[in-house]
Amino acid sequence: MQEKIYRLPKVIELTGLSRSSIYLALSKEEFPKPIKIGRRAIGWPEKSIDEWKQKIEGGYYENIES
Q1: Residue 45 in 3-state DSSP?
Q2: Is residue 6 within 8 Å of 50, Cβ to Cβ?
Q3: Rounded to whole angstroms, what are the CA distances from 39 to 23, 30, 31, 35, 43?
Q4: Using one digit for the tens of pLDDT, what is the confidence trace for 17-60?
C-alpha cells in the first residue's frame, strides 16, 4: 500500500497552523521537511505529519506559533 502524501492545504487543515507558521517552523527545523513530488510540487508524507503531531501532543516543541 502506498503512503499518502499531503499537500499544503491539507497539512494546514490537519495541523491547525497557518502557511507562514509552517514555513517558520521548517526554518527552525521544528516541522518535518516536505518531499518533492513533482517539478514544482512538494508534499508531506502522512507518517511524518502523524509523528510531528505526536511530538506536539507530548510537548516536544514549545515555540511554534499557530
Answers
A1: strand
A2: no
A3: 20, 25, 22, 11, 12
A4: 999 999 999 999 999 999 999 999 999 999 999 999 999 887 76
Cα-based distances in Å from 24 to 2, 20, 47: 29, 6, 21
Nine-digit cell string for 25: 517552523
- Spatial CA neighbour of 9 closest among 41, 55, 48, 50: 41
* Alpha-helical regions (H) of 1-66: 8-15, 19-27, 46-57
Burial 1-24 (b: 16+ CB within 10 A, else e): eeeebbeeeebeeebebeeebbeb
- pLDDT given at position 56: 86
Length of the chain: 66
